[in-house]
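A student in our group prepared the protein record below, which I am reviewing. Here is the record exactly as it was handed to me.
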Amino acid sequence: MLVDSHTHLEAVDDLEGSLERAKEAGVVKILTIGSSLDSSKKAIEIAQKYSSSNLRIYATCGIHPQDGKDEVEKLGLYRCIDTLKQILNQDPESSSGLKVQDDGIVVAIGECGLDYYLDGEKRLETVDRDKKFQRELFVAQIELAKELNLPLVVHCRNAWNAIFDLLSKHNHYSSSGSGDSRRSREVSTRKFSTSSNNRLTGVFHSWTGDWLAAQKALGLGFYISFSGIVTFKNAPEVQEVAKKMPLDRMLVETDSPFLSPEPIRGEKNEPKNVRIVGKFLAHLRGLSFDIIAKETCLNAQKLFKI
């Protein structure tokens, strides 16, 4: 059994055929990711329409730092977050005024985060304004995840220090001024725990960082998900992380229809190819494929409560 923890099914060609092929490949659960207000609505619709007894589909709702930028600029940050709350369903009888879908389809907030891969021709003040916008958008979604007690699906590109700083500041335990601030930044190879009550948690999707960054992510209580990137010949740092990290914090994904793994790199991706990622990780760690499949499936079930 396999769980594809990150897809964009609204962009997958031949969706029904793709889902059938996923089932044939042993995929039993798929998360389809919202990266804007519109795609968050579509993620819920797809999960409701295509989920079945032998292939469960779940949705996440969030605003990507780049994909959702036009919506935020048009509506404003607070109106966008309010709209995101409406997508998740308002419930005037609950203490927070919110409820997640009663059917359990929405399992996380995101895809959200920081993407500092900015146009080199932009003027410095524009770059600074873009980064400030991204930080504010990310923090708003961190707070929403905490309010709903949902995990985050985190996107990070060229922004490791900034993203760890924000997650540390807004973590349930590290937000207090009386704590030891060094503890949240401590890097070690100890076994990482996620047993804290209501501690902010989530997953760094499609991991691209090095081992130092991975230790910081794990130390904050987050999981790490590997996409087809881990199979690339030019990704030795990602492969090092996959070898060293605790197996009980690992997820697998396709990011379909993007990031097809070797040997089909460059082709359109689909959920069945999560099996290729799993087999590569098994070979990399000297484990059987069945172990990788079982452990990553259990990890996804634990994180997303699916």
Q: What stands out?
A: The domain at 2-279+291-304 is CATH 3.20.20.140 (TIM Barrel).
